[in-house]
Write a sequence for this structure.
C-alpha cells in the first residue's frame, strides 16, 4: 500500500475506534506548551493497550516511563473499579505534569506515579503481588533488563508490552553500536526466542512488541 494511503487508514482506525476525550486531547496539546517531548503513544496504540488489558482481565498494571500520563490514562480506563496502575518516572517535571492530568481524568485514586529511576524502583516492587501487565516505554538501553524483570513478575497468562519496537525503523538498518538501538533489538530478540513467551510485534506506528507469559 502507498504510504499516504497507509496514513489515511491509520487515521480511519483512530477516528472510528480510538477517539480522544477532552482530557486526553488537552494533555497531548499541553505537552509541547510545557516543554515536554511529544513522544507519547498514538490513540490507536492507546486503544490497543486497552484491548490487551481487557483481554487478559488486567487489574494490576505497571508502566515504566510515564511522561505526561497519556498512556497511563488510556490503560487505567480499561481497568475494573478496583484496578491499579503504578507508573515509574525519573523526571520530576514529567511526573508532576502527569499527576495533574491524572487528577483531571478523575483517576488519582487508581494511579500512582512513582518518581525515581525505574532501575531502582523495580527493586522495591519485587515484594508486591505480581502484575497482570507491564508496559515498557522508558530508556531503551535498559529494555532487556526491564523485560527480564517483567517476565519474572508478571503472572502466568499476563502480558509484557514494549513500545518503540521498530525504533523509527532503525532495527532493520545496520546502525552501529548505539546502546538504545541495541537495547531494543535485544528485547525483540529475547521476546522472539524465550520459550516461556508467545510474542509478536504489532506494526503500528513505531511498533508495539507484545509477549504473553505462558511459563515453560
Ligand atoms: N508512556 C508514555 C511515554 C513515555 S516517554 C506515553 O506514551 O504517554 C519515556 C519516559 O521515560 C520519559 O518521561 C522519561 O523521563 C522516562 N524515563 C527515562 N528513563 C527512565 C528511567 N530510568 N526510569 C524511569 N523513567 C525513565
Ligand atoms: Mg514510546
Amino acid at each position: 500500500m502507498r504510504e499516504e494511503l497507509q496514513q489515511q487508514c491509520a487515521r480511519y482506525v483512530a477516528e472510528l475506534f480510538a477517539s480522544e476525550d477532552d482530557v486526553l486531547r488537552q494533555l497531548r496539546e499541553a505537552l509541547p506548551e510545557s516543554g515536554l517531548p511529544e513522544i507519547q503513544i498514538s490513540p490507536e496504540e492507546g486503544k490497543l493497550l486497552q484491548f490487551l488489558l481487557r483481554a487478559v482481565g488486567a487489574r494490576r498494571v505497571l508502566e515504566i516511563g510515564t511522561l505526561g500520563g497519556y498512556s497511563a490514562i488510556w490503560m487505567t480506563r480499561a481497568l475494573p473499579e478496583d484496578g491499579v496502575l503504578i507508573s515509574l518516572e525519573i523526571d520530576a517535571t514529567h511526573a508532576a505534569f502527569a499527576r495533574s492530568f491524572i487528577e483531571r481524568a478523575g483517576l488519582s485514586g487508581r494511579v500512582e506515579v512513582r518518581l525515581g529511576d525505574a532501575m531502582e524502583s523495580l527493586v522495591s516492587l519485587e515484594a508486591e503481588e505480581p502484575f497482570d501487565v507491564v508496559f515498557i516505554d522508558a530508556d531503551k538501553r535498559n529494555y532487556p533488563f526491564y523485560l527480564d524483570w517483567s517476565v519474572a513478575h508478571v503472572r502466568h497468562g499476563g502480558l509484557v508490552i514494549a513500545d518503540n519496537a521498530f525504533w523509527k525503523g532503525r532495527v532493520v538498518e545496520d546502525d552501529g553500536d548505539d546502546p538504545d538501538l541495541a537495547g531494543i533489538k535485544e528485547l525483540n530478540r529475547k521476546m522472539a526466542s524465550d520459550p516461556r513467551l508467545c510474542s509478536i510485534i504489532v506494526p503500528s506506528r513505531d511498533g508495539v512488541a507484545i509477549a504473553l507469559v505462558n511459563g515453560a
About this structure: The chain has a mean pLDDT of 96.
